[in-house]
Design brief:
Blueprint: H1 2-15, H2 22-37, H3 47-53, H4 59-81, H5 97-111, E1 118-122, E2 128-130, E3 136-140, H6 147-165, H7 182-196, H8 200-213, H9 215-218, H10 223-230, H11 247-263, H12 271-283, H13 309-328, H14 332-337, H15 342-351, H16 361-369, H17 376-389
Parallel strand pairs: 1-3
Antiparallel strand pairs: 2-3
């Protein structure tokens, strides 16, 4: 079913034609609804689908977390967008493919990626795959006039890979040799990409290195201008290109769509109009076509209903793990300032990586941070960082 759905979706997306994908999506939703029914009784029909990707998580908990994030992030977006826009035109100049690749390899190596137990290749969409603890492969996408694409996708996938390379050797070839959940996995990719890779400390060290690769494009751009450019906040249509502050709204929309489709309160045929209304409500922009709307993600054609919440849950976990690491390791801040990631990697390996999926996500969080999942560290991180970047 999903094999055929992928072809239909790809064609519909290319033609910006949701109507041609509608019958296939209706069938997929019906099948997922039947699957969820096998696990009745449940608090909400979406719960069994969510549990596939985040064991133990309930729809009510996701809604509670989203509600805690929504208003504070709305206020933050409004405050930032009301201030003068930052310059970022230099990020869209022509950047040599091989030099982009070489810089990404340098960063991945510095993070601690073990090249004896993995490799990097190119792909149309970045992903990480593993054939065992000693064979973890990452991919990146290089776009000549978008230097941030390869740069941050390499950091993101390296985060996934570090997690998998860090599983305890004793778990090799056992069912436990996997991530605790999709959200925990995503917390690691987002941590290395955002909390480390988009931080000021990272670029104090690495920006001169990047300038040495691209003196023509960046030689006349100072560190502060570059740092603001890669952290620019601007509502956009595409989830994977969204900035840290607006990204969660893209997830909230998709989760609301999935929940309503599964419970039957939204018909597939009404999805495009609902999407446009919600984008206007959440971000103040309206997609001009279906390709920039409900056809942009492959997830529904693949039948992975219930996976989207984990992207935001991963963001929240990333800050909670990172804050705990910095609190428990006194020399962490000093190490990060000199681009020494060994203390951070050591803490993550000891508290998260080596356990693989020996613990459920909630227990893993409690053991490593001292508390269950909460939005406090994530909101503190966003408000502190962007308050300093764009002061009122």
């Amino acid at each position: 079913m999903t094999g055929n759905a992928h072809e239909v979706w790809a064609k519909a997306r290319a033609n910006k034609d949701f109507a041609s994908f509608q019958p296939v999506l209706e069938r997929i939703i019906d099948l997922r609804r039947q699957y969820a029914g096998f696990f009745a009784p449940y608090d909400h029909i979406y719960d069994p689908l969510l549990d596939i990707f985040e064991p133990g998580m309930k729809t009510a908990e996701v809604r509670q977390i989203f509600a805690a994030l929504r208003q504070e992030q709305v206020d933050l977006v409004r405050a930032i967008t009301a201030r003068p826009q930052v310059r970022d035109d230099f990020l869209r100049l022509d950047y040599d493919d091989q030099k982009q690749w070489d810089f990404g390899v340098e960063v991945a190596s510095r993070f601690g990626f073990n090249w004896d137990a993995g490799r990097q290749d190119r792909s149309a969409h970045p992903f990480t795959t593993s054939f065992g603890i000693q064979d973890v492969r990452i991919t990146t996408r290089i776009i000549p006039n978008m230097v941030t694409s390869a740069m941050f996708s390499t950091m993101h996938e390296t985060g996934h890979a570090l997690y998998q390379q860090g599983f305890a050797p004793s778990l090799r070839r056992t069912p436990l040799a996997d991530g605790a959940s999709m959200a925990v996995h995503e917390s690691q990719s987002r941590m290395w990409e955002n909390l480390v890779g988009r931080s000021r400390a990272f670029w104090v060290y690495f920006y001169p290195r990047l300038q040495s690769y691209f003196p023509e494009q960046l030689g006349g751009v100072d560190l502060e201008t570059f740092y603001k450019a890669i952290n620019k906040v601007e509502p956009s249509f595409i989830r994977v290109e969204a900035d840290e502050v607006t990204y969660n709204y893209h997830i909230m929309l998709r989760v609301e769509v999935e929940k309503r489709l599964i419970e039957g309160s939204l018909k597939v045929q009404d999805l495009p109009e609902f999407w446009r209304e919600q984008m206007q409500s959440l971000l103040g922009i309206t997609p001009p076509n279906d390709r920039l709307g409900p056809l942009q993600d492959i997830h529904w054609a693949s039948g992975t209903i219930g996976s989207f919440p984990n992207y935001t849950l991963g963001n929240v976990m990333s800050a909670q793990f990172f804050e705990a690491a910095c609190r428990q390791v006194p020399e962490m801040e000093e190490a990060l300032a000199r681009a020494d990631y060994r203390p951070l990697l050591a803490w993550l390996t000891e508290n998260i990586y080596r356990h693989a999926r020996a613990f459920l996500p909630d227990e893993l969080l409690r053991r490593s941070t001292g508390s269950p999942l909460n939005t406090g560290p994530y909101l503190r991180y966003l408000n502190r960082k962007y308050g300093e970047l764009f002061p009122g």
